[in-house]
Structure formats: structure tokens, C-alpha cells
Amino acid sequence: MRYRSYSWVLILLFPAAALCVAGMNWITDPFGYFRAVDVVGFNSIKPREHAFERHTKSAIVTKMRPAAIIVGSSYSEVGLPAAHAGFTLGGTLAAYNLSLARAYDEEVYCYAMFALNQPGLKRLIVGGFGTKAVSCAAYSTLGQANYSKLLLSEAAFDASIYTLRHQSKQQFMTRDGGWSFKRFDNKHQDEAGVLASFFDDAHGYTCASPGSSFSADQIDLKPPPSDPSTAGLRKLIRLAQEKHVQLVFVDFPKHVFMNELLRTCGGLRSYWQWVWTVSAIIEQEVGIDLQRVQFWSFYGYNQINGEPLRNDLKMSDRQWQDGGHFNTEVGQRMLDAIYGGVIGYGYRPNTQQFLDLVHRSEKDRAAFVAANPWFKSEFSEFSGKLGLAQNASQP
Predict the structure, then answer these.
(1) Are 350 and 211 contacting, i.e. CB atoms less than 8 angstroms apart?
(2) Collapsing DSSP states into helix, strand and coil, what is residue 247?
(3) What crossing angle do the helices spanning 191-202 and 374-386 adopt, rounded to 10°?
């Protein structure tokens, strides 16, 4: 072959190869963005989808334009079902779970701001949030699909091959953005696996003030300031009102063992101070009309948050995967309370009855400990393995 002919072959070969790779990645769709081809046994299971969610989820929202969005950390990604009938008004609102694993205050705030600026949004749930103002300059590309990464990157090609080879796996993510996390992981299905999941989640838990006592009079009940320490929460509230979006802030539930660790390590004062601050800011911003902007808390000692670790249930059948990740059965109860008016789980903190709420919470704990003999022994083992002080028997 002459030199010129050979050169033309090479020139044409590279774009042809790129088109083949792009075509394979588009058809296989390992990250669940395109959804043009979905064949059981071929590409319907997408085991690498979750690893790429920060590249795809906001772009899916831009393309999908849901009217109801959930923003938060992996707690809401795992536990809050976006398809809940109350949240979607009986399925009339398209819904998407925009929550992200390992998302903290800044990222949650910026994703919430992104969601509030989406056309047609009617409802927004925000969990795992803070109150401070932050810059979202690092999130300027939210909503934009990076087609080079989705179609031509090495990560996409490797994920396509992995997808084609692992169609026998359990589906990890739902089309509306939910994530199963460890729920169907084989190594967590027996009692030893459940215990390991709880210990792994709490491993490295550090005590700020081990053994310190708590009383309601430690909480500062002064009105929160209008400064950068509260500007982020205020901005979300004001933008939601401007856009006529119903905004619900959620204080995620924790398993009672994590509540007890919070007490053991002197964290209750900070927790209740945060609840007071959020409640007061919302009341300052919206006055007595608390229907468009709501704050719900699911903290507490009850049978839902108090699932025993040793109850002969597989991880797939449990309400809790670890101390913070609850399954959709718990999330269903949360959304039933918020959007269905179902009484018995969750409450709406407010400044007028705040101290009553704190005192009632302490009474609920005492009643729970007294009614559940397993709690002291299981928490003693749990905290002992973590190397922390124990006070489950203390009032």
C-alpha cells in the first residue's frame, strides 16, 4: 500500500473506531442517561450506574424536568421513594431522587438551588442540610451532560463491558434515582453481616464530650441572626416562595443506637440547638403560613427507629441497613406523615412548643428503654466494640 493510501486509512480508522465506541456506550448505556435501549439480559441491569451519578443525575433532571424532586445525602437516596403517591399527587407529578452519596451541607445546598431553578418544579424535599451561605461556583455545570465522558471515555467503555458481563446482578438503582446500597448485598444478609454493617457505619465515631449530661436549659433560645451563618437556609426559603414551590426540610431519622451515641458523646445540645435554629429561621421567613415551607423531624426512640440488630431478618427484609441508612419502608412512613397526614411517626418542630418537644423526647427515650430489654445489652455490645463510653442505662 502506498504511503498516501495508508495515511488515509489511518485518518479514517480513528473516527470510525470512536464512532463504534460511542455507539456501543450509547446502546449499552452503563450510566442510565440515554435509556434508548433497555433489554433484559443485555443492559437493563446497570451495576456501574451509581459510581457515575454526579455526572448524570443533574443532567437527567434537565432532560426529564420532574415536578417533584428530592435532594439530600445517601440517606434520602436509599430511603425516600420518589414514586410515593402522596409526594407525586397520586402519580400526576413526575418525580426524581437527586440525592447523592456522601453529599454534605455545601453540595446539598447547591443541588437544592439547582433544583429550585428548574422549570415546572412544584415540590422539593431537602434533607441533610445546613444553614450557612456557600458559594456554588464549583457546581456551575450542573444539569449539563458531558457526552465525551458518557460516550467516549475509558470509564464509559469499561463500564459498558462490565454491564454486559454482569446482567445477573441485582439492580442497584431505580430509574427515578433511588439506590439500594447494601440492601441486597449477599455478605450482609445474615446476622453477622447486619452487625458488621452497623459497626462499619459507626466505625471512627468520635466523642466530643464523652459522658456529659444534657438538659433542655442548655439550649440557647434566642432568635437566630440574619448573617452568613443562616443565609443559606434563608435563600432556599425565599427562592422557593418566589418560585411557588412547596419546600419541605427533613431531619432524617437515625437508628436508636446512633441516637444513643449522640447522647453518650455529648452531642444532644448541638443537635437540639440546630433544630431550634432551623425552626426559628423558617418562622422568621414565612410567618404563620407553614404549609408552603415545612420542617419535619423523625428523630426519636420508637419501634421504627428501634429495630433490634438481632431479629433474624435478612438485610433485604429489614427497616435499617445501618445506623443512618433506612430502607424505603421507613421512607414510606415518613412521606405518609408529610403528605398523607398519617399520625404516629415524625413531627413538626416549632418555637412555641420547643421545650415541650425536648422534654417529651426524653420521656419517650425512658419509655423505650424500659419497654425493650434487649436495648441495653445490644447497645452495650455495640458501643463497647466501638470503644466508647456507655450510658444506655442512664436516665
Answers:
(1) no
(2) strand
(3) 60
Question: For residues 88 and 96, what is the distance between their CA atoms, to the nearest angstrom?
Answer: 10
Which contacts (CB < 8 Å, 24+ apart) does range 360-363 have? 361/299, 361/300, 361/301
pLDDT by 10s per residue, the chain, length 395: 455 565 555 555 557 777 887 888 899 999 999 998 898 989 999 999 999 999 999 999 999 999 999 999 999 999 999 999 999 999 999 999 999 999 999 999 999 999 999 999 999 999 999 999 899 999 999 999 999 999 989 999 899 999 999 998 788 899 999 999 999 998 899 989 999 999 988 876 767 666 668 888 899 999 999 999 999 999 999 999 999 999 999 999 999 999 999 998 888 999 999 999 999 999 999 986 678 999 999 999 999 999 999 888 999 999 999 999 999 999 999 999 999 999 999 999 999 999 999 999 999 999 999 999 999 999 988 888 887 644 433 44
Contact 116, 133 (CB under 8 A): no
Please state the separation of Cα 274 from the chain's center in Å.
19
Q: How far apart are CA 156 and CA 55, in angstroms?
A: 11
Q: In angstroms, rounded to a whole number, what is the distance separating the alpha carbons of residues 151 and 153?
A: 6
Contacts of 220 (CB under 8 A, 6+ apart): 273, 276
CA angle 274, 116, 171 (to 5 degrees): 85
Q: 3-state DSSP call for residue 326?
A: strand
Cβ–Cβ under 8 Å, residues 271 and 262: yes
Nearest Cα residue to 151 out of 16, 14, 18: 18
Question: DSSP letters of 78-129?
Answer: HH--TT-TTTTTTTTS-EEE---TT--HHHHHHHHHHHHTSTT--EEEEES-
